[in-house]
Amino acid sequence: MIREDRELLAELARLGTDMAPLALRIMDDSASADEQQNYAQRLITVGQRLQRRANAAAGVVIEGEVLASRPLFLPGRAAEPYREP
User: Which of 2, 39, 42, 78 has the CA that lies 20 to 30 A from 18?
Assistant: First the structure.
């Protein structure tokens, strides 16, 4: 796993950990607007990083070939159905 992925996963974990206490403070009306805006910005930033990672992983490389993001289909009758002996 590359460093960028580890950092992304760590930030996602921190966001998850910070969510419950913030949600409770929002429910009891004690969370400040700045605190909520800060959390929202963190969510947006990590969401954009996750989206870039997903977009980069959309084309899988196998032996130097890039596979399209569209589904791959086998030709009809490429495999025989299993029959019990």
Answer: 2
Percent over 90 (pLDDT), the chain: 55
DSSP state of 85: -
- Residue-by-residue DSSP string for 28-57: TT-S-HHHHHHHHHHHHHHHHHHHHHHHHT
Q: How many angstroms separate the CA atoms of 18 and 12, rounded? A: 10
Lookup: tokens for 84: 């019990």
Backbone conformation region of residue 72, classed left if phi is above 0, alpha if psi is from -120 to 50, else beta: beta
Rounded average pLDDT over 41-64: 83
- DSSP labels, 3-21: HHHHHHHHHHHHHHHHHHH
